[in-house]
Amino acid sequence: MSYFLNLLMSGLVIGSLYGLIAMGFAIVYRATGMVNFAVGEVMMLTAYISYNLAQVPALGFKGLLLTTLPIAMLLGLLVERIFIRPMLGEPMFSRVMVTIGLAVVIRSSVILIWGVEPKPYPRPLGDEVIRFGELALYPGQIFSMVILGVMCLLMWAFFRHSRVGIAMRATSNNETTALLMGINVKRISGIAWALSSLFAAVAGLSFCLMFALEPEISQMGLRGFPATILGGLDSVVGGAFGGLVIGVVENLAGGYLGRGLKEIAGFVLIVVVLMVKPYGLFGQREIERV
């Protein structure tokens, strides 16, 4: 039983990272209808920026958050303004390819500036093990799960009660109608990209609090994408749930069926679920009337 509980908790921890990344994918898709394949690289870039900021002892963990997250949102706004907005009206394939090219540029730039060697990230939350009965967790692992829950609650309230969130929902349903209703679609797009970078930055910080910092962190973007598909590409909170499910399934498969099956367990789950629910667990079915 202890082995199962530890596998389950480890799956929830890594699933929380997948969930944060999936929320980054989903928020852009919900607002603009496109997939941003640079989420993993933005996560990597903000993690390296936070690494430099963490070298300032007086900053502390709270100061690190209050500094890194606004920088990440500004980065998202710049990406949208410089690379994405000029592509409005172009085929969706072209816009997606811009994000792939941007991902390559960011990854290469990070390696050029910081190198490829792993860097030990400071542990501002400490390294002491916190025990809950038979479970043992590090502060960074607890932070990752807690911050995912906080982000889910904030996003639920954002889409349910804020004017910007309601406008984003309207834009995702029908961009032309939203324009006719006076919604600033370009502003909504900028906010979505800023929030996507925010999720990526939180995922990057959470990763660094548990592991060493290295360029391979960008691969988490592709590993988190299946969680977006599982939860529903247009469901931000659904992506968070999908991340937890993928993380648990991967860990249980690796623990009981063999490490080789851990890498494919999530994809097998997606295939099975999509055969039953093509739009994901929480995705909205598109209805076209002729």
List the helices and strands and how they pair.
Blueprint: H1 2-32, H2 39-53, H3 60-84, H4 92-114, E1 130-132, E2 135-137, H5 139-161, H6 163-173, H7 175-180, H8 185-210, H9 219-231, H10 236-256, H11 259-276
Antiparallel strand pairs: 1-2
Helix pairs in contact: 1-5, 1-6, 1-8, 1-9, 1-10, 2-3, 2-4, 2-8, 2-9, 3-8, 5-6, 5-8, 6-8, 9-10, 9-11, 10-11
Subcellular location: Cell membrane
InterPro entries: ABC_transp_permease (IPR001851), BCAA_transport_permease (IPR052157)
Protein name: Branched-chain amino acid ABC transporter permease
Task: Say how many strands there are.
Answer: 2
**Which blocks of ≥5 consecutive residues have pLDDT under 50?**
none
How many domains in all? 1
Shape: globular
Mean pLDDT: 87
Total number of helical segments?
11
Main beta-sheet annotation:
2 strands, antiparallel
Structural class: mainly alpha
The CATH topology comes to: ABC transporter involved in vitamin B12 uptake, BtuC
- Radius of gyration, in angstroms, nearest whole number: 19 Å
Task: Describe what you observe in this structure.
By secondary structure, this protein is mostly helical. It has a single domain, classed as ABC transporter involved in vitamin B12 uptake, BtuC, CATH 1.10.3470. Helix content is 73%, strand content 2%. The protein has a two-stranded antiparallel ribbon. The radius of gyration is 19 Å and the shape is globular. 42% of the residues are buried. The mean pLDDT is 87. Keywords: Amino-acid transport, Cell membrane, Membrane, Transmembrane, Transmembrane helix, Transport.
